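Newbie here. two chains, one complex. Structure please?
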Amino acid sequence: MDLIADKISIIQSLWPTMLKGLWMTFQVSMLAILLGSLIGFTLGVAKTLGYFVLEKLINGYLHILRGSPYLVQLYIIYFVLPSTGIAWLSFDSYTAAVVSLSLYTSSYVTEIVASAIVAVPSGQSEAARSVGMTRAQTYRNVVIPQALKLTIPPMASVYVIVIKSTAILSVIGFAELTRAGEIAIMRMPGDIMFIYCMIAAFYFMYCYPVLRFSKWAEGRFGSAGQIEH
Amino acid sequence: MDWLQYYFNFRIVGDYADIFAAGVAQTLWISALCLVLSVIFGTLVALGRMSKNPMIWRPIAAYIQFIRSTPLLIQIYLIYYGLPALLPQGYGNIFDETQTGIIALTVHTSPYMGEIIRAGIQSVNPGQIEGALSVGMTPRQTLLNVTLPQALTNVMPPMLGQTAVLIKDTSLLSIIAVFELMGAGLQMFSETVIATESYVTTAICYLGIYAMMLIISGMLQNKLGGKAWKAN
């Protein structure tokens, strides 16, 4: 009984710090998914327009972001950009976190949006063009509304990837959930395993419903392909 | 080339070339070992997940969900600090950092591989197997000539994608002091304190590995063909 009472008192004393960390994780992951979707949507649509050079450039961007680990990208944005000497590139940890995560997210979103647009049957856009719609109208009123529905399930999976990637932000001292846990461990080094399990439980409670939603939405709306990870 | 040296001092990078080469080698063999282990354990996970016995598939499903819903970094910490306590008394430190890292990455990657393998096994049309058996093939011939080639072709693209993720994930092992490519970059940074050369070189090495992966994937695509590739 003593053991349980002890653990409960640990939870009680760590609760406020952990919630503050969870709030930061929520904040930064929300910002990243919003900005990342914005960039990704633009690039994804641009990729399907059929301009060869544009497509190659976007592919290069995707390869660079998908080919290097997020940890390296974070280090480059946090440590390398300030050494270029350009003042506004010297980000604090919050800006660096948001910028790097948004770029990282955009690489996933671009592929999802592009493949969703391709997945819309070509008869749809041909029909729209044949009744006299311009190309822009076809995209805005016919293709994109149908494509966006297909992006919902993979976007939920991407959101889970973003939430999980925020844990890496702890290495640059960003005060999110994992960092809050590490600070708590400095205070109570004896309970290291319990505190890490507690952090894992927080992440689980955050990510699991999103994953379930993704699964549900896949049956409901169909999907524009799966993403690894 | 003097202007380039102002931005990127390749002479210093040249001094650290052997450290980076060692880092690349370390990253490659750690990923290769983790890949083999996680395909083996992934097959077990897939078979366990497809079992009809709830005593088997429920724990496996919980394991898959836990791994998918928590960050790799936390899993690495849990195994790094928790593994010694789980082992019997006196055997607490038989695994060094690298071995612990390999265990952690295998534990992390197996469920993903398992889900891919499960989808691959389920993707083979049962009519194919029935057809093969009905023309007089033995079950063994059916497995080797009909089921496995199709399952393998279907599974290859997501598995290569997961391998690319695995290679990138090894960079997180640098946080528990495993020497690999990211560790090489960190070592160069701690000795020279020049961020650009240390981290950009690391990124270039990772991109090189990724480019190699793309080439291998293209070669496999030519060799295996099949409709599963067209989706990518």
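Moderator note: Chain A has one domain: 16-221. The domain at 16-221 of chain A is CATH 1.10.3720.10 (MetI-like fold). Thread marked as resolved.
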